[in-house]
Design goal:
With 186 residues, the chain is an alpha/beta fold. The chain is 20% helix and 30% strand. The chain has three helices and nine strands, in the order βαβαβββαββββ. The strands form two sheets. The chain has a six-stranded mixed β-sheet with strand order 4-3-2-5-6-7, with helices on both faces. A three-stranded antiparallel β-sheet has the order 1-9-8, with helices on one face. Helix 1 (15-32) crosses helix 2. It is globular and about 50 Å long. It binds inosinic acid and magnesium ion. Inosinic acid binds next to strand 5, helix 3 and strand 8.
């Protein structure tokens, strides 16, 4: 397997900048939900690293649940616009304050489908928190209540975001030099 340093083009968000912003988001969310209980829903797998850090900066009582959708195949870099629910929630969300926690909003199709799906279950409130947003790539408008960083239209990896399922563990967000990257053959 390639060492990421071989194809890392640029670290666009270093670890300290990420962590500082996550503290700010946690503070803002805690303020907005003062006196309420919050149910955080993480979309697997990209959102897990962000969720784990963000929830520790949320001071109102909160619970977590997970769901998975498929929108990208390995080696495919463009969203298809079609999203399938591959793992449903464990718990009922009726009358709960739901906050969707996402790694990145790109075309917007994933989050838009997930919002439509969750609305049918009648949460009390439903908001979206994404770490990253590629605004210039948006094909469908989605309401984003909390956004960590708006980033340029480049494929990024690290901090939960994968490159062919690898490198999610890196503590920063980096861009890929595609000419130097070789997909794994596993
Ligand atoms: P959308 O449906 O086009 O908004 O795509 C959202 C999903 O695509 C995200 O949840 C990611 O899983 C994936 N994605 C989009 N851009 C990137 C990227 O630059 N790196 C890694 N995954 C990405
Ligand atoms: Mg994702």
């Amino acid at each position: 397997m390639q060492d990421y340093r071989e194809f890392l083009e640029e670290i666009i968000i270093p670890e300290d900048v990420l962590q500082k912003r996550i503290v700010e988001l946690g503070t803002e969310i805690s303020r907005d939900y003062q006196g309420e209980t919050l149910h955080l829903i993480c979309i697997l797998r990209g959102g897990v690293v962000f969720l784990a850090d963000l929830m520790r900066h949320i001071t109102v009582p909160n619970s977590i649940d997970f769901m998975a959708v498929s929108s990208y195949g390995a080696g495919v870099r463009e969203s298809t616009g079609k999203v399938r629910i591959t793992l449903d929630l464990q718990e009922d969300i009726r009358n709960r304050n739901v906050l969707l926690v996402e790694d990145i909003v790109d075309s917007g199709y994933t989050i838009s489908s997930v919002i439509d799906f969750l609305e049918t279950r009648h949460p009390k409130t439903l908001k979206v928190c994404t770490l990253l947003s590629k605004e210039e790539r948006r094909e469908i408008q989605v309401p984003i209540d909390y956004c960590g960083f708006v980033i340029p239209n480049k494929f990024v990896f690290g901090y939960g975001l994968d490159l062919d399922e690898l490198y999610r563990n890196l503590p920063f967000i980096g861009t890929v030099n595609t000419a130097r990257y070789t997909p794994p053959d596993h």
